Amino acid sequence: MFRPSENRKELFLRACRYQPVERVPVWIMRQAGRYLPEYQAVRARHSFLEICKTPELAAEVSLQPLRALGVDAVIVFSDILIVAEAMGMPLDVPDSGPVLSNPVRDLTAVRGLREFDPEHKTKFVGDAIRNICRETGPEIPVIGFAAAPWTLACYMIEGQTRGDVSRAKQMLREQPEVVRELLDRIARATSGYLQSQIDAGATAIQLFDTWAGELSESGYESFELPATQKVMDSIRPSNVPRILYAKGSAALLELMARSGADVLSVDWRTDLSEAREKLGRRVALQGNVDPSILLSDKAAIREAARQAVEQTGGLGHILNLGHGILPNTPVENAKAFVEAGQTAPLPARAQMGRAD
Question: What's 147's domain CATH number?
């Protein structure tokens, strides 16, 4: 059961650092969003980008899952394409999905992208984090985030995606040096952007690599991994946990473990026990319940949460979904998932104060 008196920031940090815990921390990707009536009420009055760019609104919707579900972490409400916009690509987010104008298709376009000062161009994100931190106090972790370089490159090349990044993959094959330079520029911009979130008070950061699974192992190692390492290395001195989420990443786990991430967040296609066996204690794990299970009955939800915790032994594990929560998820089911994770029994070796 949700216990508001406990220090959830300390719990979250211990899980990220593979230290003993009293229980697993739980949060949900896309936890602030359309399945919540509170969010729908705000969205009825404001556009998506208006919410993202108004710190008071962004903070308000970021905090809604904390109040409604009792999650153990707050992730700032924003969008992964904010960096692309700050680099000079006009962004629109209609109900049909985000659109970036003037997609990047050649070296001239890549070199026309601008560097930006996040304390000026994207200050609204840092201000939202500061507002969240003032509201939650020192005992709730706040997560900042950005797109991983390859995923942002896909959107910048495609202009929009509806599950198809074939043009980006074609460009990778036919113009590899153009893509490499694009990834490098994105990595530099993302590094400063994340550092500004850390400076604003973020407890941890997460990179979302939605399209990592579209790459072969050699493609990931040659292109995405160096760019991701550059981002992770740039924020290492801040000593905040670095989480890397990659969809469709089962074949890439060992390469992802070389990224510099402290936590690998994996989708529901990855067996957590196999991931733990493969990776050992090099990194903590996050995930990975199938979001569609939250459309089932509460008994199935509780069992899925229990199994996920059992597969990792609860040590070095942050319970989450394997992708974002579905918009038609009943709120009571999301709450049942959070409570199931927070009450899941741990083996003695995972518990606070016990030897591993």
Answer: 3.20.20.210
